[in-house]
Amino acid sequence: MARIGVVTFPGSLDDRDAARAITVAGGEPVPLWHKDRSLAGVDAVVLPGGFSYGDYLRCGAIARFAPVMEMIIDGAQGGLPVLGICNGFQILCETHLLPGALTRNDSLHFVCRDQRLRIDSTSTPWTSDYALGQEIVVPLKNGEGGYVADERTLDELEAEGRVVARYLEVNPNGSRRDIAGISNAAGNVVGLMPHPEHAVEPLTGPSTDGLAFFTSILTRLARA
Amino acid sequence: MSFDTVDNARHTPDEDQPWAELGLKEDEYQRIREILGRRPSSSELAMYSVMWSEHCSYKSSKVHLRQFGEKQTEAAKESLLVGIGENAGVVDIGDGWAVTFKVESHNHPSYVEPYQGAATGVGGIVRDILTMGARPIAVMDPLRFGPADAPDTRRVLPGVVAGIGGYGNCLGLPNIGGEVVFDESYAGNPLVNALCVGSLRHDEIKLAKATGVGNLVVLFGAKTGGDGIGGVSVLASETFDADKPSKRPSVQVGDPFTEKLLIECCLEIFAEDLVVGIQDLGGAGISCATSEMASAGTGGMHVVLDRVPLRDPTLSPEEILMSESQERMCAVVEPAKLDRFMGICQRWDITATVIGEVTDTDRLVIEWHSETVVDVPPRTVAHEGPVYQRPYGRPADQDARQADAPTAQRLVRPTTSVELRDTLLRLVSSPNLAAKGWVTSQYDKYVQGNTVLAQPEDAGVVRVDEKTGRGVAISTDANGRFTKLDPYAGAQLALAEAYRNVAATGAKPLAVTNCLNFGSPEDPAVMWQFAEAVRGLADACEALDVPVTGGNVSFYNQTGEVAILPTPVVGVLGVIDDVARRTPMALGPEGESVLLVGETRDELGGSEWAHVVHGHLGGLPPTVDLQRERQLAEILVAGSRDGMLTAAHDVSEGGVALALVEMALRGGRGARVVLPDDVDPFVALFSESTGRAVVVVPRSEELRFTDMCVARHVPVARVGVVDGVGDQAELAVQGQFSVSLAQLRTASEATLPALFGPSVG
Amino acid sequence: MARVVVDVMLKPEILDPQGQAVQGALSRLGFTGVSSVRQGKRFEIELDGDLDDATRARVEELAGTLLANTVIEDYRVRVED
């Protein structure tokens, strides 16, 4: 069974939900502690949502320097699939594994809503189980979710097909070009603001549309 | 630096002490002298003044609150694992699972500093739950503000909501329900009540006792600073005076990140069974934790105050004892287990320090700079505070108010279809009934992945056991207007509504908590309201066989002479065997039958209609019928469990009309409604009679469901059928009017954003 | 004992909704003639010893990697006596 690491930083909140989503998808979640200096041989890593270090200084700014992140940055540069959800996306931007940054929502309010998204890239190991252009509904919950980058970077992301997901109907945080998620050039590192791990069970989520993020990686790993 | 010691107190018996400034009465000061056989040291005086304040000692309410225990039935006691008196009550929910829940107030601090007042209110109640050995799993917040369009409401409400969200979201606790109510009596005295529920296995319950001579007292969590010094005795034991400049004592400032670490740290400590007793530090800080734990335990404690880690090195011993710095806990640990305890704290970077040990001297002795500054019998501080028999009497204007009933002669009622339609839209858009998304979208309801139903549903439902689906439902309700008209009935109506809301989701009501918000206990009219409300609530709990597990009293909610509406908030918790069977409130699918269960009478006293359209408060509130509530609950729970119900929604403020609108908007579906012939249309739509619910059943289940109601002698009538999907669907009341979902949605959802700013929620 | 102050501001091209909210509040309080408000952060770092070149360089480095996110923020380091 494929083993997917889920990192817990002080203040991480959705680590247990990410682990649950991996289990529901059919994988084995492996808890990774922020102070670990080894990745326990996992096949992929999820950086979950939450308020690591209370979001102090900047979201993800302190978590980015955790010992476990050294291994993850190394691994990612060597092709290890990494999915950063919400706070995880913020950490990936702070490490510069992904370009741009996440800033305070333009409304200045924290917002929790069921958000409609469009999957704009299915060539990453985290989105291959979706159909290109598929519309999904997944919970969004953040106070600092506004994606910003300079025009050159934004054009590059678009031109290279690295915008992974976009907000539909409502842009909840002022993200440039309605970007909800992006990937690195190699495609193995994906950052996503909304929470697919909260949309894997009909009982507790607005849909099960989020499950494919977790089945995609298992499909990809099974093939490898 | 010189400071007052016990020794010094012995040698200077006639020294003048500022007992009045600290909030003590002359007779209370004399009693302290009698207890100690000398004058108290300055530290002891600080300790007694804070612990004997209204907020900590419940001195005005104790004699009345006794009824909650006295009137508890045997049946009610069955599900109680821990009763009143501990930090929170613990209820057995079956399968070896238990839950602990409580609601508390943080009213005055929220007026002074809305964000931090509300944030630290959440922090405090979460620690109360954690202290029982439970993992906190959800929060809810009943909130009350002045008029929605008042400038000060624009200052207070956004800050309070941001504070609750800022703290609760960072802790990773889903916010699953609550209330937002506006009334002019709360201007200047907003009510910020915070509820938390936690889950645990039966054998994981922890209590706040310091037992075992030689066991170590460990203070852990945040460092101690000058937060809220005097906050407890000063703020919560006095009212705001409109003439004096506004009070600005130091408020408590919260750090949710530290509390999140504290939660994880404590749960690991509990899992390894490393504590003998544990207490959180809330109002009155170290004074409270040490005296309560010593009093409840073996009887004695010795503490060296110098060991308390400080953020501010200039604090005096009195200030350290009174500090209300947040995110602190106090545990009693056997020496053999200390290393492991400290190791876990270190893993989570939590400061932990041994500050003392348990003794058998029956005294709480505290040293500072090698001198004894406190030497008291802990029981006298924590559990033998003053008990007042405050005078109370029915106010002179009560009869006149009750006689001023909202009859058709007294208040003009809508009679034509156009008038009825306009009344509906007016109520739908009124601040108390309008959609609350502006507030609730600032709260995370998804974290932990166990939320099955959240606002605006009737109750918040969370799954406790992922394997079996066992879960709990919670609702909080109160109606200040009903309570003003008749405090005894008003409290009962709050319980009835919360009880009904829990049952509407398919959960069996099991236990009660309460937060009693009232004006000054020194006003006999207010005290009468309090006495009647407590009596009403205790009697109602007895009739329904549900125990009060604990709660909170908040007095002095008044500005000058004007008290708030008496507002007893009642929280009911119920259990559901399998959350997959819960009953949501949304209308649908098309063609299913809409039924009204219960009886409708002409009861508009204290109603939303009387308030919104006529600004009128008079007459009597709707009749309470607890037997009917019990039958209705049985029907709703059985209907849910046996798969008969597609949806259910309790009927309360705004009557059947609002219930239908809320169900329609939730489901994005319309309905064709037929009002009963034998009731005036206005009454049928807007009366607030109790013991009613609107349910949606598939045609195939209608007979079975109806038979179940008939067997219990509960009236049930078909009032319509689900019809239409999407924004162009309509709520069509046959022979009267129809209104589109689009128009209803706009009326409902535009109100709060127009007042408080745009919302993407 | 040296004290180093690091001021961090959002780059001019980055949207600053907090600054905008403050500007709105100033105007509601009757303070007119404000064309812009930007909100930033100030870090006050007290050092045990004196500030030598090596330490100064280290502070600059940390300012650019930890205290400021140079993707969206500018920073300035000053020494206070």
How does this structure look, described?
The complex is a heterotrimer of chains A (about 220), B (about 750) and C (about 80). Chain A is an alpha/beta fold and about 220 residues long. Chain A contains five helices and eleven strands. Chain A has one domain: 3-Layer(aba) Sandwich (Rossmann fold). In chain A, the strands form two sheets. In chain A, strands 2-1-3-4-11-10-9-6-7 form a nine-stranded mixed sheet, with helices on both faces. A two-stranded antiparallel sheet of chain A has the order 5-8. Chain A is globular, with a radius of gyration of 15 Å. Chain B is α+β, with helices and mostly antiparallel strands and about 750 residues long. In chain C, about 35% of the residues lie in helices and about 30% in strands. Chain C is built from two helices and three strands; from the N terminus they run E-H-E-H-E. Chain C has a three-stranded antiparallel sheet, covered by helices on one side. Chain C is elongated, with a radius of gyration of 16 Å. The chains are: A alpha/beta (about 220), B alpha+beta (about 750), C alpha+beta (about 80). Chains in contact: A-B, A-C. The interface between A and C is medium-sized, with 22 and 12 residues.
Secondary structure blueprint with pairings:
The complex is a heterotrimer of chains A (224), B (761) and C (81).
Chain A: E1 3-8, H1 15-25, E2 28-33, E3 44-47, H2 67-77, E4 82-85, H3 87-94, E5 101-103, E6 111-119, E7 135-142, E8 146-148, H4 151-159, E9 163-167, E10 179-183, E11 189-192, H5 211-223
Parallel strand pairs in A: 1-2, 1-3, 3-4, 4-11
Antiparallel strand pairs in A: 5-8, 6-7, 6-9, 9-10, 10-11
Helix pairs in contact in A: 1-5
Chain B: H1 6-11, H2 26-36, H3 42-51, H4 54-57, H5 62-70, H6 74-77, E1 80-82, E2 89-94, E3 97-105, H7 107-112, H8 114-130, E4 135-145, H9 151-171, E5 175-182, E6 191-201, E7 216-221, H10 231-235, H11 256-271, E8 277-280, H12 285-296, E9 300-304, H13 317-322, E10 328-333, H14 338-347, E11 351-359, E12 364-368, E13 371-376, H15 378-382, H16 398-403, H17 417-429, H18 437-440, E14 451-453, E15 460-463, E16 471-477, H19 480-485, H20 487-504, E17 508-517, H21 524-544, E18 548-554, E19 558-559, E20 562-563, E21 567-576, E22 593-597, H22 608-614, H23 626-641, E23 647-650, H24 655-667, E24 669-673, H25 681-686, E25 693-697, H26 699-711, E26 716-725, E27 730-733, E28 737-740, H27 741-749, H28 751-756
Parallel strand pairs in B: 4-5, 9-12, 17-18, 24-27
Antiparallel strand pairs in B: 1-2, 2-3, 3-6, 4-6, 7-10, 7-11, 8-10, 9-11, 12-13, 14-15, 15-16, 16-21, 17-21, 19-20, 22-25, 22-26, 23-25, 24-26, 27-28
Helix pairs in contact in B: 5-21, 8-9, 8-11, 9-11, 11-14, 17-27, 20-21, 20-23
Chain C: E1 2-10, H1 17-28, E2 40-47, H2 53-67, E3 73-80
Antiparallel strand pairs in C: 1-2, 1-3
